Amino acid sequence: MKPYFTLFAALSVLLAQAAELRIFPADFQKGSYALNEGNSVPLEFTLTGNGREMAKANARLIIETHENVPVIAIATQHPRCLKLLKIEREGKVNAVALPPEYLSLVFPTRGWKSGLSVYFRAKPGTAGLQFPVKVSIVGNGRKFIEKKLVFKISDPLPVPVKPLKKLGLVLWRLHSAFLPEEAEYLFDENIAFWKKLCQTPGTTVGIDFNLMPKARREKLLKNFRHMYALHCSGDTPIIPGSSYGFFDKSFKISRPGVRKLVNSKGEESRQNICPLYLINDPEGVFWDQYIAGGLRDIVRNFPNAEAISWNFEVLADSGVCQTCREDFAKRRKLKKIPSVKDILPGGELHQEWRYYRSWCRNEILKRFAAVMKRECPNVKFSISTVCLVPGQKWIDNWTGLNVKAMDSYADHFANMFYLSGRDFCDWVAYNLAELKKPQTIVTDPAERDIRWFSRYSPVLVRQNILASFALGSKSFALFPEDYFDAAYLTMFAETFNAVAAAEDAYLRGMVRNELNYKVKNVLDMELSDGKKMQTIQVPELTPWIRVFHHRDGKNDYATLLNYSSNRKVILELAIPAWKDSRAEVTDLISGTNYTGLSPESIRKGFLAVVPENGAVLLKIGGKEKARLTLSQASLKTMLAQEIETAAKFKENFKTVKNRNREISFLIKDSNPIIQIKNGKASLQCNPGQGGIITSFIAPGLGEYLAGNPQFKLFGELAFQEANLSIPAKIPYTVQSLSKDASTVTLAFTVPPDLEAGGNPNPLEWLRIVKEITLKDYNGSLRIVHRFSNQSKKTMKFAFRVRNITEHYWNPKAAGTRLTLSDGSTRPRKGIHTFVRKESPNVTAWLGNAEKLDDLGVKYAWGRLSMQFSFPDFIGLYLWGSETLRTIEPISDVVVLKPGETKSFAMNVDMIWDQKPKAVKSAEKKTSASR
After folding, report:
1. The CATH classification of domain 656-929, taken from the options 2.102.10.10, 3.40.50.300, 1.20.1730.10, 2.70.98.10
2. DSSP structure class, residue 247
3. Side-chain half-sphere of 574: how many Cα atoms within 13 Å?
4. Sheet holding 130-139, edge to edge
5. E strand residue ranges, 77-222
6. Cα distances (angstroms) measured from residue 545 to each of 47, 534, 625
7. For 445-499, how does the pLDDT look when each residue is reduced to its tens digit (9 = 90+)?
8. Is the pLDDT at 700 greater than 80, yes or no?
9. Where in the chain is the domain with CATH 2.70.98.10?
10. Could you give the residue range(s) of every CATH 2.60.40.1180 domain in the chain?
11. pLDDT surpassing 70 at residue 228
12. Residue 903 or residue 102, greater confidence
């Protein structure tokens, strides 16, 4: 889940010294939050800083808001301090005193449960309005914090016609579950909403269940299906209250003689037991008495629990004690016991160690499963772990866990996917096909980390829900809690209402080969794949479409998912064997009725439209109440306009030649690829997938970007702050090909979309132009990113350009072939290196970077030296391991006024100690042509 590039932002964040108030999820929505008219919703206020200092100052929380969106409740969240705070009101000002016992739980760099649930309610008649909100923490004349928000009021929540009855919805944890007893009415409102979507939703219970008020516990068990969430630390399951002294009250290992897990730094864990101790259980106590007794306690306390869930997402780099290394050496028949360095990333035995640790962890899970089967045979063993990834060996996933091996002893999976979009759909399909046990599909739109939160807008979560049920999952889970604003809540109500209407059809499974579909707003074009001509579509839309057909005995249903982020799709759908006399077609999500249809239209084909990043669930057959209509005639007019656009797009695909240079188009894996050649030097890039250079051939060097295709990331633009309207792989379009056949120009404009919470995208109308130039026959290249502000407001952003210069498995790789301008050699294996020039606008990425006057990098490769220069950048990020080398220039904070343009160039010059024959030959030809 978290390889080096997803940890990038976290590595460069400074520890918070001063007080900080994080308001979730509004902070991730640019300070904006949407409320449904008449509905109450919470924001989570998490405080960090010097709690004692604030306590001495008698700190108070002040919220200034409009009377139409009053604060209705403020409650602490920490189990050691559950209180409903008294609100003192004066006009627009709402003030609460922060209890000293609460502030004692506030630390400078840790915000776990040091939060407040702050509830607001939008009064009737406010839909369409917006109101400013100011939040501050003050004490003894000192202002610790001040923040501003904007509340935007949406229409009242739609009321679903009926809830799901057989398909499941799981709320991993309810935000209202740990409110003080005096706020029971807010808990009642919270569960009432979810029960309108699902007759009996699911949730988890765990070690803090008894901290809830008694009436709350009873309601939760009565209204929700539940599974027990096991408390665990790494490989070690912990069941509080179970005797035999393995752990004290703070879950520290306390039993004499129990070996502790040793982490990769050589430190003993306080909560984790040595994996080999767990497997062998030398005393015969841990599994047969401690875990067995604990499981009996769980079943006694939660007799209706359907499952016990173990969230198992642990890394392979721990468990390196002498005993485990001895066992590893014995099982692998090594001549000597390896050192810790030998088995960690970069070591010669690291890959073998990952296999060993995978075996260890599966053995631990097997032992737990065996005890469960014996002690509570009617309770399912559910494992929540990493998902299977198509095309990836299981040993290469970020945990190194063999999930398929768990299929033999798990009863159920609730695996984490951590993404949305087309990959989510395809990965879910793969997991449902590969794993035999039932699966709840877990998605995490309420993560308190922008890296994960930014992957889910309401429309993308809607796609995830529909894809999961259409592909055959019987249950969908929202993780970790349910802090959602109006945009999400409205989407949930609309989507689950539609799924409930198609529930019986989804439960029957997919109907295959009876529904034909074709993307119509494209044109065909022939390109070579290097051997023969193939036909592709322009623009390329079919690969971004997923269509699923279901039937419930009365009606047919078509789930249409468009994963293109910038193009609507017009589909022609046909069911040739349609025999019904009815011909009603209605989108159950938008309430749009397709008019002008007949049974013959259903058989021969009718048009339907799916917006960009959109989802449609068509009911075909019986009549459905509709709010909107869409005629076939209007769709044909729309199609004609789209074809005109496609024709202009097609004009860009041509071949340009100039002497020994050529720009042409190829097809690879059904994708149009641009190829630039200069003699025997060439490069290829995929415009629709970020304009990334996927092949780079220099004379005498051959294919430079060898290795795993997933890591061919040369020249990829990555913004510092995630933006939902800028896909990770930017879908550029070809703008021009230079007459001298050296340069390709690509472009993308950020659409005026809305992010979660109804907040206008701060980068809407930012035009991004990417120029890729093959400079000479040596293979030297230049990449320029040009940003133009086409809006009426000033924009601020920062970015880096990702260049993975190597990707292959080489445990002996020195990892020190990058030479900086000061003569130092970087990066050291596994060490993240940041360097920068002086600048007044340094980004957070570069806060602690070393300072250099010049960012040039020399990269030695045999007789070849690659000279990287970054004239317009202020920083550089370097990282290396036994599998990767990365060189990434980082911008300053770019400030673009309306109409302003700024460019950033990256040069890669090939310099040979002794020129190979291919280069000398190219030089002679060029000289002769002159």
Report:
1. 2.70.98.10
2. B
3. 13
4. 32-36, 142-154, 130-139, 60-64, 93-97, 88-90
5. 88-90, 93-97, 115-121, 130-139, 142-154, 168-171, 202-205
6. 44, 20, 27
7. 999 888 788 889 999 999 999 999 999 999 999 999 999 999 999 999 999 999 9
8. no
9. 656-929
10. 516-650
11. yes
12. 903
Q: Kindly tell me the sign of the dihedral angle through the C-alpha atoms of 159, 162, 167, 171.
A: positive
Decide: helix, strand or coil at residue 133: strand
Contact 880, 886 (CB under 8 A): yes
Longest dimension (CA), the chain: 91
Among 41-50, 204-213, 857-866, the least confident range: 857-866
Q: Does 635 or 718 have the greater pLDDT score?
A: 635
pLDDT for residue 807: 46
Identify the CATH number of the domain defined by range 516-650.
2.60.40.1180
Give the separation between CA 40 and CA 30, rounded to whole angstroms.
Answer: 21
How many residues are there in the chain?
930
**pLDDT band, very low/low/confident/very high, at 78 (cuts 50, 70, 90):** confident
Distance, in Å, from the CA atom of 290 to the CA atom of 285, rounded to the nearest integer, reads 6
When the pLDDT of each residue in the chain is averaged and rounded to a whole number, the result is 88
- Kind and range of the H or E element at 859? strand 857-861
Q: Residues with Cβ < 8 Å from 219, sequence gap 6 or more? A: 187, 188, 191
Protein fold of 18-154? Immunoglobulin-like (2.60.40)
SS3 assignment for 468-481: HHHHCCCEEEECCC
Judge whether 227 and 306 are in contact, CB under 8 Å. Answer: yes
The rounded Cα 361 to chain-centroid distance in angstroms is 26
What pLDDT score does 812 carry?
44
State yes or no: pLDDT of 210 exceeds 90. no
Specify whether the CB–CB gap between 734 and 725 falls below 8 A.
no
Q: What is the pTM of this model?
A: 0.80
Beta bridge partners of 693: 685, 714
Question: Of 701 and 77, which is predicted with more confidence?
Answer: 77
